[in-house]
Design brief:
By secondary structure, this protein is an all-alpha fold. The protein is about 70% helix and about 0% strand. It contains 19 helices and no strands. The radius of gyration is 21 Å and the shape is globular.
Length: about 400
């Protein structure tokens, strides 16, 4: 509860005016001229079309698959060399880029080896979590490593999320599934009843068998808290849920999910770092809520962002998210600070892009102010929003 209180206090003290730190830090957030935006858009369109075509035509022949994967890797390498959106080549050394590429490839291969029926979208779902973990690994001063705990944890997302979100599965079956996971995390014996439960148990074993003693207890306890947080998020569907309850759920669910990434990234855990990653997880949860605001409104799910939009305060809440991101990450002192600037820039820009992709909820004046710092035009982002359902990138 102490951690939750600190996150709340940090969140509530953030200003809700337009983030003037953007203007005051032109080296980190330069104004992007129209010509550069067009170049970025052309590059992303070409890359997206090429990758989507390759993903749709993944060969079944093993020998051809190796060639296909090399072509895919080359496409990503070319993008990293040419892109001026995140400027990865300026933030990361060639050694780090190569380590990141090798471990990502290793991670994807292990994901496919565990379950070759996963769709590209589901693999992308695992990769999204892995990328957060990879950034944490670097800030912790560790070498990149795609080992069993992060592999299994990332794979749990498409299995558990898709199951919980499936409207055709009864509440009773979902509750039984959650109870099985809870018993497993508590160290009790369980008997899987179907293929999904068998895979879930195997993944949990891959995590828990990597730890012993107090470390195992801490990891299991964190995953149990995350399970409870995900279950509590069902309350966001209730019509009488209060903003206070929504805030509690968002803090609990978001912070715990990234805390698990931190625990898997290193074994040298400290309270100072845990406090940061709890705030970092809440930050990413708010970005997700902003991204999904349209879908959440239609489905009746209440988040801080849907409530803010209802109260005509979405611009203020988006500003507060940007300030929260700026202050929390800027004040953190990681063991290895080399990638901290990139993490800060990325998290701010993803919030800016996410807001711009939900143009219908913001004023023209606000969008115009944001667009100065965006790598793309508002029209391009609107097009990306429409194509989102067909793409995984």
């Amino acid at each position: 509860m102490t951690a939750t209180r600190e996150i709340r206090e940090t969140w509530e003290k953030q200003p809700d005016g337009f983030p003037d730190f953007l203007k005051k830090n032109p080296d980190l957030f330069p104004i992007v001229e129209s010509e550069r935006k067009k170049e970025n858009e052309t590059l992303m369109q070409e890359f997206s079309q090429r990758i989507q075509k390759k993903l749709r035509h993944r060969p079944k022949d093993k020998e051809r698959q190796n060639e296909w994967e090399q072509e895919l890797e080359q496409d990503f390498t070319e993008l990293m060399e040419r892109e001026k959106i995140l400027n990865l080549s300026e933030w990361m050394s060639p050694v780090l880029i190569n380590a990141f590429k090798c471990e990502t490839k290793h991670f994807v291969n292990k994901v496919r080896a565990f379950d070759d029926t996963l769709t590209p979208a589901q693999i992308w779902q695992t990769l999204r979590n892995y990328f957060i973990y990879a950034m944490i690994v670097d800030m912790q001063g560790k070498e990149q490593h795609a080992e069993n705990p992060i592999l299994a944890y990332s794979l749990l997302y498409p299995y558990t999320d898709n199951y919980i979100d499936d409207e055709h599965i009864s509440v009773q079956d979902k509750e039984r599934y959650d109870q099985m996971i809870a018993l497993k995390l508590k160290g009790e014996s369980v008997e899987p009843g179907n293929s999904l439960e068998e895979k879930t148990c195997r993944l949990l074993d891959m995590i828990l068998e990597s730890y012993e003693g107090p470390a195992k207890k801490k990891v299991a306890g964190t995953l149990l808290q995350l399970l409870e947080a995900q279950n509590s998020s069902i309350g966001q569907q209730k019509t009488d849920v209060t903003e206070e309850q929504i805030l509690e759920i968002s803090m609990w669910k978001g912070s715990t999910s990234v805390l698990a990434d931190y625990l898997f990234a290193t074994t040298d855990w400290t309270e100072y770092e845990e406090d940061f990653y709890l705030k970092f997880g809440f930050l990413l949860q708010l970005v997700d809520d902003l991204q999904d605001i349209d879908e959440d409104k239609k489905s009746g799910s209440h988040t801080l962002m849907t409530e803010a939009e209802k109260q005509q305060k979405l611009e203020q809440y988006t500003n507060r998210l940007l300030w929260f991101t700026w202050n929390v990450i800027r004040e953190f002192n990681p063991i290895n600070p080399a990638l901290k600037g990139f993490v800060l820039k990325y998290c701010v820009e993803i919030s800016l892009i996410t807001a711009a992709m939900n143009q219908q909820f913001f004023s023209g004046e606000y969008l115009k102010a944001l667009e100065l710092y965006l790598p793309f035009t508002g029209d391009f982002l609107k097009k990306m929003k429409k194509e989102k359902s067909r793409n995984i990138l």
